[in-house]
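User: quick one, fold this
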Amino acid sequence: MIDLTFGITSKLKVFPGSPQPSFIKWSKFDIHGYDSEAMFLSTHTETHVDAPSHFISNAANIDQIAVDRFFCKNALLVKILIMYILIENLCNLENINRNRFTLVAIPLKLIGSTGSPVRAIGIEG
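Assistant:
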């Protein structure tokens, strides 16, 4: 299994005009009994999937796409485009030893959104 996902930090270089990601400490373990953060970022930050509505007016948003569409057997080592679902900014592709592999890239179920960050993995064999 190969992680194909870029990490997201507040220092990463973003697409011109996109907001800079930020992470705000929301709770502290010593005060609240747990740690948590709030985050601010574009739904198209780093490794992400574009819904059809990102390119086509009145098309499906990310939450309207069946989850099985984000599991692709026999993916090719090219920019991944599956019926107007575009997965962008994959990394570590050079570590995949086969021309075809299984790609899993599950987005968050963001209601009404044109995209979502994903944790993408490649599975050989």
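User: anything notable?
Assistant: The CA atoms of residues 105 and 120 lie 4 Å apart.
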